[in-house]
Specification:
alpha+beta
């Protein structure tokens, strides 16, 4: 899968990132993680404090896939409102999901403090704005639901938004204590932490076959350079490329676009450097970085063909800059990095842990959706808990055949 193309900002922030050797021998382990992006790193982080023998294989280099294009807004609210999710899954289900999302952001913060590499984690507030008057009522209902469940947020009127920002919107949810992070440094930090605790990590080691051996009760994974890995458990954490290994009918893909600007001298017009997104579909979102750049993303396109996606990159880049200029006319920006990428979601708005009969003792981590890094943290913890303890009560919420608790 041609996941993305363009130029990438995040790897430039860590030019001397750790590197790892190629697998040059056959291997046996308790847990094999396939994928060296953020999802694989988050699994490795949780497994690092167990007594299990763990290995990670990455077909290219650590963090070189979707991690390099991840804009890493860490929020518990997502594209599909919780009030809409309740219609599909029921209130108890979604209340637990909300709680786990909040915990996942806290877990990312804890992890960022446990590692030795600076991940550029910062708590940030979020402005979730109604793009038009018709969206105000649904946004108000979402606010009331979140407030009932201990959300740290306020509802802003049009006048209150205009008092804080140089643009106007009909209304907005102002959410306190979300966060942002550098996903590339975070992924390297977690894997460096795991390696120091004995987890084996291999780059340029691509899987090219797998099967379950009934006699020994293990998955056998072969690599392109001619070696085999026997594992009691396998976690497929290959991001969007995991769909090439196991098709998942609940997954859906569109194309998305991102611009990262040159550093900006004056951000004083940007109230609290909040994360910003909106109710419009396709939506626009933006954040700042440690070195005062601005990341602007969105304007998703329904195309699922990489050639079509990439042909629109320059036009979308210009559109993103124009949309930003409308909102912040006094902040002068120049694009420096811009990319086009596939963006995976799920048809029902909940991320997926895939467990399939054809893949015994295996887990597919599909943290698809606009809160991918938060989803990855949540799902990684659940998968590791089930491997270590034999059971995780929250697993059923995220299985690919999860029940629709509210069928009307």
């Amino acid at each position: 899968m041609n996941v993305q193309s363009g130029t990438y900002y995040w790897p430039t922030t860590f030019p001397d990132a750790p590197s790892y050797t190629v697998l040059e021998e056959d291997l046996s382990c308790d847990v094999l993680i396939i994928g060296g992006g953020s999802s694989g790193a988050q699994c490795a982080y949780y497994l690092a404090d167990t007594n299990l023998d763990v290995a990670v294989i990455e077909k290219t280099t650590i963090g070189s896939g979707s991690t390099s294009s991840n804009t890493a807004l860490l929020q518990y609210s997502g594209e599909k409102m919780f009030t809409d999710l309740i219609n599909t899954f029921g209130s108890d289900y979604i209340e637990r999901h909300l709680q786990l999302l909040k915990e996942a952001i806290n877990e990312i913060e804890v992890a960022s403090k446990n590692v030795t590499i600076d991940c550029e984690f910062s708590r940030r507030d979020t402005l979730y704005a109604a793009s038009c008057a018709e969206d105000v009522e649904s946004l108000k209902k979402e606010y009331e639901f979140l407030k009932q469940h201990n959300g740290e947020l306020t509802f802003l009127s049009k006048e209150e938004i205009e008092a804080k920002y140089p643009f106007s919107r009909e209304a907005a949810i102002y959410c306190y204590n979300d966060a942002e992070i550098n996903p590339f440094r975070f992924t390297h930090a977690l894997l460096e932490h795991a390696a120091r605790k004995g987890i084996k990590i291999y780059e340029h080691t691509e899987m090219n076959g797998h099967h379950f051996d009934d006699k020994i009760g293990k998955m056998i994974v072969s690599t392109k350079n001619g070696h085999t890995i026997q594992a009691r458990y396998v976690i497929f954490a290959a991001g969007y490329e995991g769909i090439e290994i196991k098709k998942e009918k609940k997954a859906s893909f569109v194309s998305t676009y991102t611009v990262t600007t040159q550093p900006v001298e004056d951000l004083s017009q940007w109230y609290n450097r909040t994360l910003i997104w909106e109710t419009a579909r396709p939506y626009l979102y933006m954040r700042t970085t440690r070195d005062n750049r601005i990341i602007i993303g969105g304007l998703d396109d329904n195309t699922a063909y990489s050639e079509d996606r990439d042909s629109k990159l320059i036009h979308k880049k210009n559109q993103l800059i124009e949309e930003f200029n409308k909102m912040f006319p006094t902040i002068q920006v120049q694009p420096e990095y811009y990319l086009a990428a596939f963006y995976g979601g799920t048809v029902d708005g909940i991320p997926i842990i895939g467990k399939y009969e054809a893949y015994p003792n295996s887990y597919f981590l599909f943290a698809f959706g606009d809160n991918g890094m938060v989803y990855s943290q949540l799902l990684s913890k659940i998968i590791v808990e089930e491997i270590v303890k034999g059971k995780c009560p929250d697993l059923d919420l995220y299985l690919q055949d999860r029940p629709l608790l509210n069928k009307g």
